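2024-03-11 09:14:02 INFO receiving multi-entity request
2024-03-11 09:14:02 INFO entity count = two
2024-03-11 09:14:03 INFO echoing inputs for audit
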Amino acid sequence: MTKTILELRNVSKHFRLTGIRNIGKTVHAMDDIDLRLCRGESLALVGESGSGKTTTASVIAGMYEKTSGDILLDGQPVRAFRNRAESLAYKKRVQMIFQDPFASLNPTHTIRAIMERPFLIHGLAAGKTALESKLSESLEQVGLSPAAEYLRRFPHELSGGQRQRVNIARTFAVDPEVILADEPTSMLDVSIRIGIMNMMLDLKEKKNVSYLYITHDLAGARYMSTRIAVMYAGMIMEIGPTEEVIANALHPYVKLLKASAPAPQEGKRNDEVRAKGEIPSLVSPPSGCRFHTRCPYAKDVCSKEVPAMRDVGNGHLVRCVLV
Amino acid sequence: MAEKTLLQIDHLKAGYATKAGFVRAVDDVSFSLRRGEFLGIAGESGCGKSTLAYAVMRLLRDNAAIESGRIVFDGTDIAGLDERAMNEYRWTKMAMVFQSAMNALNPVLSIEEQLVDAVLAHRNVSKSEARGIATEMLELVDINADRLSSFPHQLSGGMRQRIMIAMALLLRPDLLIMDEPTTALDVVVQRSILQKIQELRMRLGFSVIFITHDLSLLVEISDSLAIMYAGKICEYGPSRELYAAPEHPYTKGLMSSFPTLTGPITRMGGIEGQAPGLINPPQGCRFAPRCSSAVPLCSDREPALVPTSAGRLCACRLCGGMI
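2024-03-11 09:21:47 INFO inference complete, emitting structure
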């Protein structure tokens, strides 16, 4: 077994609502999340909007303080940063790629200014020539060459795909160990998505980083990862090796997700998707299993207690009493 | 052909006047739609697919215009009709579901007011009759009649989109145009909406033009498929056949751009580069600059959309051995 780089133990994140009518109400965005990410591994976190997958990445990235639980990086517990040095030291190791390439690059800065920042902030380039060569190297490894041509441009002069490449280059600039990729291709045109995905897979091999690849697309998760965790309403419902989870989905929600995904190669499909409704409100999440309100197989017990994660072997865990 | 043609588009050209020049977003597009047919139009952002839909509905913005071509709806050319005459068609004979259902409903009016308004504007009926029509339609999309008094913000995204569909179908149009109706929705909700559309189409017999960037979705639900690239249709044909054996290099590229849930995981190619701007589109074949099988001749003359086999059309010099 390869070495674990990042571990989450029963991590929860609740947001307190503001406003006079919401006193005492909290959003249970992330509850009891257990995850383990190995070195060089790509783990996909799949879920619909509002399932808590972005919150999970933000908590790991240190943008939100967790409500409870433990996060361990390389075996060391991650605590709230007491000063800038601690924050920087952590961020040097754990980086995030954001979803929206149109919003995540400062429109008033040139690509040079944007790309210089990680090197300057983390003190990774001694002298001008060193910086210059690092800049070209980072841009060229994401397919933006000649680098000089891109360095003098502004974000609005680049296409969505090129901007996302800049984002990825910036993330890799500090040689991180863990990259949290929050739907990096969902805002891009279909024909360029695969290019970005292939490049990320190549970079992972080359740099031996670990990915937490967040997506709502099960097929994309299959392409990008060796393990998949499926989240629903703030909790992980099923986790295991990619092929295992997709071919032998055990949780009713994962089965539903699978049946809903477009599958053109199977021809016109007649399998009715039986579950009704949508993701529940996380202000007062359903009691017991969070999926019981939509589950076609729900029993009385499902609404009474939260099912525990059950190991069905081969690293495949499911949170369902019926399995 | 046995079935009756509902819509016939001939050499339609439409575009926008912008500061940078004229953008011809729809350039010489022709196709026909039979009664009851489900046509899918797939293409990336900026390929002109939405402009095409708005042109057919005659809903183009002030800076846009139909330059030339005919839009024959049920025997009448509506391309040049004035607003008053056009209002006889809109909503009663052809209706549209817009991309962001979240914003298409009026937030300060109840669902009932909005539905009843639409009926009263086009039909000479009493208010209670209009309410009856609204209730009936709402039930067809599986929304309980007690939701009539709700306001849009009290409903989920999927419900709002179903209400948009109910609203479009209120007056039993012959043609329903849907512009990315499920893009903002989660996969599970998307699947249930698609099933609903199919079910209603079988029941009410209307034709559908379904516009999306997600080709994988269309293959399953549409009868025929048109692929658009840079303002033109590059391939057209029955969707199963087109999926099984795409002929245009762009279609082939698109097909190898989305990962699948089953079968072996092979590295996919996607398409290099990006779509051209439409102010100065490339000479000759517009896909030639990105095409891996392009020959010098491709940039000389524009390929025509010609039959390659029964029911299939392709605009490529290389298909059907036409070099």
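2024-03-11 09:21:48 INFO post-check: Chain B has a mean pLDDT of 90.
2024-03-11 09:21:48 INFO post-check: Residues 197 and 227 of chain B are 21 Å apart (CA to CA).
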